[in-house]
């Protein structure tokens, strides 16, 4: 290998630590908040089937490529891409791929922290029985009362950002690895408990039919594009997080194996979240396709009416917070590593500096839901513009460039060396997907998100 064998920032203790960390990065609000409601909006089983195919053909190949780049470079995404471009004889401009990923992750963190603050706030509301006896109007008022009060929203945003910074400041093993080693098993335990409750108290058979019995008459072209897009975004691709986590991966660990495990774990969490949510929704006679309000408005209505709703609701929002926390840690890490490499700051100072800047930027998102809700640019609020820029432009572009660099710029020998695969049918399949199929799919996702198709 032509590059350094260890990162100056540290290294995971082994395969399991990386799997937990990468799964923590991938498992977030997208799995527990977004996946159930887009499944509900797009007809259930047929959508799930397309989503699983997209994970296999788009998500896994690109994730392998991003981990490969990270481990070969062993630095922040910006410096990794500069190093690998020199090694491959490519243009120095490839450094911009790393720059773009760090910026995307940083911008996402700024508004992700605000949304995660809602989950924190709802732990307190669920635990105190605030949902009990509320009707639809009452639940809506509870939510609007939270997002409409910028001071409360800022407080929860501040608390969540502080939790994120404290973990990252402690380093790879003492901070990131220790946190995910606790958070991810607890998240899985809570999720299984919630599914158990859904089996006992909810309309579980209807939920299983809804999620796993394909009805292709309900599958539209738009639904296929949404499944493609979510399969890409759910694995935290294109934002520098997986690349930096890959830089901490020990050289003896198989990239293909750990990618497969992480993708399966991430998908299982999304499916279990659906199996925890839909039985409760159906049993309470609520609408599966309730959209983004499913978690913060529809479910609290159910928690307030069902037996054991206080305990189940509290556990649910604790789980949602854990998922968001593990993802937020990975979003800030690329910026922190760059600061350590390029400035005199030690990791602790870099973590607090990065966290403060992201927190400051997050104030714009806080105000987008109240004081600045009428302030728009290009027809969108501050938050909507950040979300559009990252989700629709920076992340697909990052994924596309990862495919192009790995498949078309890097030397085949170096790619084989890092993947530790024989030059045979398995490698050729991955190489075809990363050279042709995945880039084409990402272009389609990009054009669709821009409203061009």
Briefly, what is this?
The chain is mainly alpha-helical and 453 residues long.
What topology emerges from the helices and strands here?
Elements: H1 15-26, H2 29-41, H3 45-73, H4 77-88, H5 95-127, H6 136-147, H7 150-169, H8 172-201, H9 204-212, H10 221-233, H11 241-247, H12 255-283, H13 293-303, H14 309-342, H15 347-368, H16 382-409, H17 412-419, H18 425-449
Helix pairs in contact: 1-8, 1-11, 1-12, 1-14, 2-12, 3-4, 3-9, 3-10, 3-11, 3-12, 3-16, 3-18, 4-5, 5-7, 5-14, 5-15, 5-16, 6-13, 7-8, 7-14, 7-15, 8-12, 8-14, 9-12, 10-18, 11-14, 13-14, 14-15, 16-18
CATH class category name: Mainly Alpha
What portion of residues belong to β-strands? under 5%
Q: Helices and strands, in N-to-C order? A: HHHHHHHHHHHHHHHHHH
Based on the structure given, which CATH architecture is correct? Up-down Bundle
Major sheet description: none
**What structural category arises from helix and sheet content?**
mainly alpha
> Any idea of the CATH topology?
Amino acid/polyamine transporter I
The count of helical stretches stands at 18
Distance between the termini: 43 Å
- Say how many strands there are: 0
What is the general shape? globular
Q: How many whole angstroms does the radius of gyration measure?
A: 21 Å
State the share of residues found in helices, binned by percent. over 70%
């Amino acid at each position: 290998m032509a590059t350094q064998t260890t990162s100056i920032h540290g290294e995971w203790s082994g395969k399991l630590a990386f799997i937990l960390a990468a799964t923590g990065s991938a498992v977030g609000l997208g799995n527990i908040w977004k996946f159930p409601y887009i499944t509900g909006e797009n007809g259930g089983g047929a959508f799930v089937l397309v989503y699983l195919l997209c994970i296999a053909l788009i998500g896994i190949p690109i994730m392998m490529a991003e981990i490969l780049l990270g481990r070969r470079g062993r630095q922040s995404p910006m410096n990794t891409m500069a190093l690998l471009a020199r090694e491959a004889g490519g243009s120095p401009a490839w450094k911009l791929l790393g720059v773009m990923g760090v910026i995307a992750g940083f911008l996402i963190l700024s508004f992700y922290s605000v949304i995660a603050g809602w989950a924190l706030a709802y732990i307190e509301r669920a635990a105190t029985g605030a949902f009990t006896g509320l009707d639809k109007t009452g639940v809506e008022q509870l939510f609007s009362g939270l997002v409409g009060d910028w001071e409360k929203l800022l407080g929860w945003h501040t608390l969540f950002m502080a939790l994120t910074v404290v973990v990252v400041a402690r380093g790879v093993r003492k901070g990131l690895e220790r946190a995910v080693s606790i958070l991810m098993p607890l998240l899985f335990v809570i999720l299984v408990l919630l599914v158990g409750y859904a089996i006992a108290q909810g309309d579980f058979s209807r939920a299983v039919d809804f999620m796993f019995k394909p009805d292709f008459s309900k599958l539209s072209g738009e639904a296929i594009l949404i499944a493609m897009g979510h399969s890409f975004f759910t694995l935290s691709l294109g934002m520098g997080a997986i690349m930096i986590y890959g830089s901490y991966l020990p050289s003896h660990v198989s990239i293909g194996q750990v990618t497969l495990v992480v993708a399966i774990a991430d998908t299982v969490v999304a499916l279990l979240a659906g199996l925890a949510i839909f039985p409760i929704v159906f049993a309470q006679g609520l609408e599966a396709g309730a959209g983004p309000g499913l978690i913060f408005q529809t479910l609290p209505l159910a928690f307030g009416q069902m037996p054991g709703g206080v305990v189940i609701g509290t556990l649910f929002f604790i789980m949602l917070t854990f998922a968001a926390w593990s993802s937020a840690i990975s979003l800030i890490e690329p910026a922190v590593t760059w600061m350590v490499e390029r400035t005199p700051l030690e990791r602790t100072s870099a973590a607090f500096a990065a966290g403060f800047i992201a927190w400051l930027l997050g104030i714009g998102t806080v105000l987008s839901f109240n004081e600045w809700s009428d302030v728009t640019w290009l027809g969108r609020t501050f938050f909507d513009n950040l979300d559009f820029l990252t989700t629709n432009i920076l992340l697909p572009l990052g994924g596309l460039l990862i495919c192009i660099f790995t498949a078309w710029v890097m030397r085949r020998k170096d790619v084989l060396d890092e993947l530790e695969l024989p030059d045979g049918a398995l490698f050729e399949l991955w190489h075809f997907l990363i050279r042709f199929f995945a880039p084409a799919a990402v272009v389609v996702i990009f054009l669709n998100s821009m409203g061009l198709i």
